[in-house]
Amino acid sequence: MHELSIATAIVEHAEETARLHGGGRVSAVRVRVGEMAGAVPDALRFSFDVAREGTALESARLLVEEVPARARCTPCGTDFAVGTPPLMWCPQCDQPSRELVGGRELEVVAVELEEAGV
């Protein structure tokens, strides 16, 4: 389960961010996970719960924004949902597309820190 290594990297990143901002505790981490990123959001949430134990993220929440896969048709410029299984065939002009414009994201977008005295 590679989600555990991803979750560990998220925890390490959030701990470093907290350290750079005064060493406070992390209350939440916001991530974007694309449909085609190769990470299962529920497995990532579970792994995060395991990886955060004994860290500054002990009580932090992992907030996952799931990003649907989208493609763009080169011939006509139409953006469309790729779906599962991945079909990158334009519904507008019936041509194949090779340009994936969304759905591969796997990124930390925010680390939320607890306010002092909380």
UniProtKB/TrEMBL annotation:
Pfam families: HypA
Residues that hold Ni(2+) according to the record: H2
UniProt: Zn(2+) binding residues: C73, C76, C90, C93
Protein keywords: Metal-binding, Nickel, Zinc
Tree of life domain: Bacteria
Known role: Involved in the maturation of [NiFe] hydrogenases. Required for nickel insertion into the metal center of the hydrogenase.
Record-linked HAMAP family: HypA_HybF
Family: Belongs to the HypA/HybF family.
PANTHER family: HYDROGENASE MATURATION FACTOR HYPA
Protein name (database record): Hydrogenase maturation factor HypA
Gene of this entry: hypA
